[in-house]
Amino acid sequence: xxxxxxxxxxxxxxxxxxxxxxxxxxxxxxxxxxxxxxxxxxxxxxxxxxxxxxxxxxxxxxxxxxxxxxxxxxxxxxxxxxxxxxxxxxxxxxxxxxxxxxxxxxxxxxxxxxxxxxxxxxxxxxxxxxxxxxxxxxxxxxxxxxxxxxxxxxxxxxxxxxxxxxxxxxxxxxxxxxxxxxxxxxxxxxxxxxxxxxxxxxxxxxxxxxxxxxxxxxxxxxxxxxxxxxxxxxxxxxxxxxxxx
Length: 245
Description:
By secondary structure, this protein is mainly α.
């Protein structure tokens, strides 16, 4: 093993451990039937089998990934626009809109979105997008506005255009603060995405909702376990990225 690879493994050992546990749990949930029998000793079925856990995990990741990507593009893009001279008048409006998105409960957003968008994945993506905007917008604004004006002066003195200043100076300097907001947004949305099961978006929320409806605690624990492991995996990976920065 090369020294670089060994150092990388030492640095990323915790995310890799959580990822390994997540994969083992999703692939080997049926092997834990005796454990889940403790939660429901009188139930005929204690392992959720309507869909495979790896499939549910993949769908969960897809929904969170798409919503988070849209939130990053919209949140960082809005922060960049309102920190330019031509967009400063819209800064309060953008901040208030992002705050309003997280003030609305995701359940309420789903209830409003379903009549327009129908059942399925799209309503939960919209809900997660709105719910995940605030941390990204707030941190992006803080990162961009926190740059020392002397840095801007030095960059302009070197002959950089406004676009070059943004790409080569502002965004790299603000990246750690922006990434911290993305970390918060994604971690919150991993848990919130489970609500999509109530509107027909199949993901790791399926066993939780099924367990609530059927009074089966084992189903609830299985869904919650995988969502928790996924959140820990992603959060620890972001922690390593922030440390690297």
